[in-house]
Amino acid sequence: SNQRNTKTEYQIPTVTEAAASIEARKKQLDDARNQMVAVGFDEDAPLSAKRQAVINYKKLEASMWNGVLTLVDASDMANFINPELADNQTQPTNVFGVKLKRQVEAEQNIVSIMEFAKEYDLLLFADESCRYCREFAPVLKRFVDQHHFALDVASLDSKAGSIAKSLGITSIPTLVAIKKDGSLLFEVSRGVVSASQLEANI
What we know:
This protein is an alpha+beta fold. Helices cover 60% and strands 11% of the residues. A 4-stranded mixed sheet has the order 2-1-3-4.
């Protein structure tokens, strides 16, 4: 009886078996999707048939995603049991590594923005009577000071307003980046945004 209860050891499929299995699953999923779409476009098909076609496809789709999730779990376990296999530089798996990676990325981002500031100046379209402009001013000042940008401020009805018009800018505050040689310009932000959003937009 012990022999009956003993499970046969799992054998990883051969390359040929694996390819055939994947192709079969792909065909099954494609067939179910095609049936679902065909029934969906068939005006004579009853709602019950359409619902069943959707259920059939979603069951196969759910099975596929469950397989993906188990692979993710297996990958996490492999990294935990065999840390030498993990790419701890680009995909750190421990808290310290994750924090260090974020710190390095933040420092690299600051350097890239400062390099950008060597080629571009900033122009803010604003007005003293605009409450949102006043709220945005200290945020922008800290950003400009940190990354060493040159900043000009102008109203939409000033001489610089032609730049706003060319970019379709009609509201304030709006921040624009202009290449120092004047060959390129683009909108960076519109409205009150955070410093992190400015960094992301640059």
